[in-house]
């Protein structure tokens, strides 16, 4: 049986990925690694620091020692840090937003990127721009940071969070060819909306589907 590691910087994503991996790739053993304090440290420092990167590298090496064939981060804020760990390991390393970004680039050229946390928005924008250059695609990125929505979410005010994100999403739908929701926590607003006129992409499900493809290719 293949074995994969999924790294979480918050316990909030654990249940979602346990459900998705059980549904999409039940024949793969999943090693979930959770450091619940890391996302707070990333936000406090405006992104990953050398000390945070060293912690990430330690988890990558621990996953390899545990017999995993691939390591994926469930957090877009540290995607680049995980990519940089490739030289440390014979495992493949990947990020949850890889498939989402590839799809967004193909469906552009006007790509709206919505986020509620700056430390997620910035690396997502950088990743989209890098992959667009590598693909030879000309795209226009329309970013929207809704920090007040995340403040409401932290306070337990889900109604205010959903209202702010929904308003941002409706605005993006009339301006873009495709919309990227940079955080899994934002996808909940889709449940209360009619089917959008343009694609709205979220990372968890397409990310796990891509992980399954990567594991099959490694077998």
Give the overall form.
globular
Largest sheet, order of strands side by side?
2-1-3-4
- Separation of the first and last Cα atoms: 10 Å
Mean pLDDT: 93
Instruction: Identify the CATH class of the largest domain.
Output: Alpha Beta
Q: What is the strand content?
A: 15-25%
Number of helical segments? 9
Radius of gyration: 17 Å
- Count of discrete domains: 2
Percentage of helical residues?
Answer: 40-55%
Q: What is the structural class?
A: alpha/beta
The CATH architecture assignment of the largest domain turns out to be 3-Layer(aba) Sandwich
**Order of helix and strand elements from N to C terminus:** EHEHHEHEHEHEHHEEH
Largest sheet: 4 strands, parallel
CATH topological fold name of the largest domain: Rossmann fold
| Poorly predicted segments | none
The oligomerization state is single chain
Write a structural description.
This protein has a 4-stranded parallel β-sheet, with helices on both faces. It is globular and about 50 Å long. The chain is an alpha/beta fold and 219 residues long. It has 2 domains: 3-96 and 205-218, Rossmann fold (3-Layer(aba) Sandwich); 99-202, Rossmann fold (3-Layer(aba) Sandwich). It is built from 9 helices and 8 strands. Helix 1 links the parallel strand 1 (3-8) and strand 2 (29-34).
């Amino acid at each position: 049986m293949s074995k994969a590691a999924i790294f979480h910087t918050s316990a909030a994503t654990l249940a979602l990925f346990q459900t998705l991996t059980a549904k999409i790739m039940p024949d793969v053993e999943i090693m979930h690694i959770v450091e619940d304090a890391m996302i707070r440290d990333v936000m406090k420092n405006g992104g990953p620091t050398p000390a945070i990167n060293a912690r990430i590298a330690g988890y990558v090496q621990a996953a390899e020692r545990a017999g995993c064939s691939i390591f994926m981060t469930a957090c877009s804020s540290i995607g680049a840090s995980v990519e940089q760990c490739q030289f440390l390991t014979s495992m493949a390393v990947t990020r949850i937003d890889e498939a989402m970004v590839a799809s967004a680039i193909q469906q552009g050229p006007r790509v709206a990127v919505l986020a509620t946390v700056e430390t997620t928005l910035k690396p997502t924008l950088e990743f989209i721009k890098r992959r667009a250059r590598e693909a030879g695609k000309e795209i226009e990125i329309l970013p929207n940071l809704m920090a007040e929505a995340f403040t409401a979410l932290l306070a337990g005010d889900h109604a205010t969070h959903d209202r702010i994100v929904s308003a941002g999403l409706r605005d993006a739908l009339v301006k873009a060819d495709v919309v990227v929701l940079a955080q899994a926590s934002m996808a909940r607003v889709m449940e209360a909306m009619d089917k959008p006129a343009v694609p709205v992409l979220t990372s968890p499900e397409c990310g796990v589907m891509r992980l399954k493809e990567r594991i099959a290719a490694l077998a």
